[in-house]
Amino acid sequence: MSVLEIKNLHVNVATEQGEREILRGVDLAIAEGEIHAIMGPNGSGKSTLAYTIAGHPKYTVVSGEILLDGESVLAMSVDERARAGLFLAMQYPVEIPGVTVTNFLRTAKTAISGEAPSVRTWIKDVRESMARLRMDAAFAERNINEGFSGGEKKRNEILQLELLGPRFAVLDETDSGLDVDALKIVSEGVNRAKANTGLGILLITHYTRILRYIKPDFVHVFVAGKVAEQGGSELAERLENEGYDRYLPTEASVAGGVSAGAPAPSK
Amino acid sequence: MTAATHAAPAAVAVSGAVPTTAQHGMTAHSDGARARPAIPVQTRSERFRSVHAADFPPVTGREVAWKFSPTARFTDLTDGDLDGSRLPFTATDAAGVTLSWIPRTDPRIGTAGTPEDRAAANAWTAVTEALCVHVGGENEKTVTITRSELGTAPRAAHTVIEAAPHSRGLIVLAGQGDARLSENVEILVGAGASLTVVSLQEWAPEAVHLASHFARLGRDARLKHIVVSLGGQIVRVNPTGHLAEPGADIEALGLYFADAGQHLEQQVFVHHDAPHTKSRVTYKGALQGEGARSVWIGDVLIGNTATGTDSYEQNRNLVLSDGTRADSIPNLEIETGDIAGAGHASATGRFDDEQLFYLMARGITEEEARRLVVRGFLTEIVQKIGSPGLEQRLTAALDMELRRS
């Protein structure tokens, strides 16, 4: 049974004003087949957690551990982590001119599997997966994310999730900017991937909306760089009704306090 | 008559000093006539020209044609004696294309253009004969002329590529091995002809190659001119396209990859000199390693007879490491108010680390990810060459460049 463990994780981000502490002791354990929702206000460190797991160079792990089946991933490069079975669906997927989706998917699949996929089954897999995500076949010949709408970019992320078959996926605000139809399509894709491969999911979101379509086993509330409260899906319902206000410091304690959070490394 | 001279500010990017996502000089305009006070900018059309080296003073490096070039490293080519005898080459065969040596008194010589710098004039003066490549027949065909045994002594060469009216063909002029070469290439594109000329520089690391290409396009003639510079210490290829008759159309493409210590330069000049002429200039380059240097100057002159002109030029540079420098200077001079469109763009940007992260987060190694991004950046030019064999060869050559880092 695979497990992704995050232990007492402290993370700094490099800013123009110097190092800034964002995560202040995060503990989480996600077993294969489980869905954990991470919710929290802006700036609470949710995206930092996502990028730190993936290994983005902008973030420095000061102390703590990230363990995949008991083995630390901290010394691994970004691509090694992906090949070990970690996946990050990005909040803001970047455009890569001149590199087609087809070429990219085949290159990534080959890197993850260690061998080129069989041509016949691979083309069929890509085509079927795209059809289920209601992506036009012409997409495959377009350059990665170039001229894609917000919804198309997110579907393209889930397409990769389905085709690459990771053991654990971090979905960083995959729901943001999606209309209800796209939200349903994307959620179906995530649920399908889970049903097919039994992967564990860390679902990062600001809103409870996506939790109507993807049912979390656990909900963690992130505030100021650590988990402030955790529970089952009923916690999400409570957040839906009450918002994050009760987790936020009063005005008196904000003065002189440190505001956590850094923008996701995107452009 | 409305007249306007627009010289864009020099766009220079020195890596290490620019932020990660630096994109500057992103300018584009299509306004025809902007009244300006008389600023003493010398227009390209008034630049001094001569076929005699002695008419040019010795090169100082301060001349407008030379100010970006390391002139001290090739005084033998600008000011010395050059070997102007027939140079060795090999060529592939194709029906409809004939190669011959013609005397320097041949009436075709000098009809496409006149040297604007001393290296070109020095070569012009030194040669005794020119290699004539005659393209006839309306079928597509390809001939590759390879110069690979030029040695290290300074040489001069003159080539005339002549496409008969309504003919079609692709001529590749390739350079490999050692060279210290100054050459002129005249390209005569007859009425209705469709010609592609590729100048492919894959010289050895110490080679120096200075070239001036002069193309004259007749009525409804079409020229695709492609400069690919990968190998050589100093490579400077300056193509001029004279759109001399109505309906002439030039597509000028360039692709370069400057490694550590390499100087790759191209000064492109398109002269719209007849109504309803069209030009598209697109040069893309990558720079990698200490002292990697590229220069692109794009001059477009739309003369007062060139009504209905449609023109656009752009240069894009991708900076892959610190210690590189890319100069990118588009200039547009417009002497008529009646044009269909004219614009230019220039951008020099650092390698985008977020692109690298995105690809690596899908399991792709850093080396492979870099290759994908750079190939993606340059592929626009490669795919426009229109020769699958040459495209494959260039893709492989570019992969080699990336591995060298």
Automatic annotation (TrEMBL), chain A:
It comes from the Bacteria. GO terms for molecular function: ATP binding; ATP hydrolysis activity. Pfam families: ABC_tran. Belongs to the ABC transporter superfamily. Ycf16 family. It comes from Candidatus Lumbricidiphila eiseniae. InterPro entries: AAA+_ATPase, ABC_transporter-like_ATP-bd, FeS-cluster_ATPase_SufC, P-loop_NTPase. This is Fe-S cluster assembly ATPase SufC. The keyword Nucleotide-binding applies. SMART domains: AAA.
